[in-house]
Amino acid sequence: MRVLITGINGFAGSHLSDHILANVPDVQLFGIDYNNDFSRISHIQDKINFRMVDICNEQAVRKIVKEICPDRIFHLAALIAVDKSFQFPQEFFKVNVLGTLYLLDAVRDFNPGCSLLVAGSSEEYGYVREDEVPIREYNSLRPMSPYAVSKVAAEKLVEQYVRSYKLHATTTRAFNHFGPRQRDEAAIANWVYQLEAISHDKTQEAVLQVGSLEAKRDLTDVRDIVRAYWMISERLRDTNDVGELIFNIATNKTKTMQEWLDLVFAGYEKFCARHKRSYRNIMVQPDPKRMRPSDVPILQGDYSKIRGFLGWEPQISPEQTIDDMFEWVAEHSKPLCITK
Predict the structure, then answer these.
(1) What CA–CA distance (Å, rounded) separates 99 from 228?
(2) Secondary structure of residue 255 in the 3-state scheme
(3) Distance (Å, whole) CA 234 – CA 115
């Protein structure tokens, strides 16, 4: 089997690579990314046929699909930082929409029989009323950020290509995911990076910068997310109904960001004990730069559809995920991307 992952050097891409190599015999794994930062896949780099390709380079995308002729494609290459999408909306549309369009065209022209999964986002739901929680796949899409709008547009492109050209493709709506190897652009990863640095350097001020702590979020371990991606791809050859295989990937449980912060502090205390570091009392300080112009108040996903179709269930507890995040950051003491 020949599998192509776009954005293979990214957070989800690296974990999907692990999952495929551990569970799929005789696989040929190909990956493309716009940079050669292999920090997340260095442990499996020799098992991946890597090509440096910018998803926004139409001719390069067409060439790689024609050359590899993969059996399955996982399109994970995207700009994902919701906050930054308000600053750079053009870039988000260029990467997330045009990049998806170029890939769809290449598959249509050179490899229409392959299975294509495009990673979408729960941010597509946007504004959700109280009577719509937990969110089902048939809920209205009311995106509240340029990032979310770009993902809705990409999803609609996939739907149109499936209906017009009978491609074996679909999109997913994964709710917020977290785990080891995540960059500090995401809130929980950012807190872990900050706390690990504070525990490591006693001269650093014991202050944790945070954004809004009122929103409610449903978070799933990235390793559970990529397991769902693979399970969905197994079914893609059996249908040309894109709507049938649009799944929420979630836990159906929410916590306020304050409650998530409390869990991170508990993980910080355990981390300090494990590594014999001095536990320091931390002052939490709201940072206006971390507040969004508009924010989704609650994202809670009902995953009964994917459970019914595929038997998928989340398996990794939030406590385990946070412990693994602290260990990853400690082992890679130079943060991947510190956001000031």
Answers:
(1) 23
(2) strand
(3) 8
Write down the residue that tokens 């994917």 correspond to. 306
In our burial notation (b when 16+ CB lie closer than 10 A, e otherwise), range 252-289 reads bebbebeebbebbbebbeebbeeeebeeeebeeeeeee
Q: How far apart are CA 338 and CA 334, in angstroms?
A: 9
Contact 218, 302 (CB under 8 A): no
Tokens of 30: 């190909």
d(CA 90, CA 110): 29
By residue count, the chain amounts to 340
- Residue 210 near residue 290, CB atoms below 8 Å: yes
Buried b (16+ CB within 10 A) or exposed e, 65-104: beebebbbbbbbbbbbbbbbbeeeeeebbebbbbbbbbbb
CA distance 176 to 306: 16
2-178+218-249 in CATH: which number? Answer: 3.40.50.720
| 134 preceded by a cis bond (ω within 30 of 0) | yes
Distance CA 189, CA 285 (A): 17
Amino acid type, 5: I
In tens digits, the chain (340 residues) has pLDDT values of 999 999 999 999 999 999 999 999 999 999 999 999 999 999 999 999 999 999 999 999 999 999 999 999 999 999 998 889 999 999 999 999 999 999 999 999 999 999 999 999 999 999 998 899 999 999 999 999 999 999 999 999 999 999 999 999 999 999 999 999 999 888 999 999 999 999 888 778 899 999 889 989 999 999 999 999 999 999 987 766 666 889 999 999 999 999 999 999 999 999 999 999 888 889 999 887 777 676 778 889 999 999 999 999 999 999 999 999 999 999 986 544 433 3
Measured CA distances, 288 to 86, 212, 242, 255 (Å): 15, 9, 41, 22
Report the C-alpha gap between 17 and 28 in whole angstroms.
11
* pTM for the whole structure: 0.93
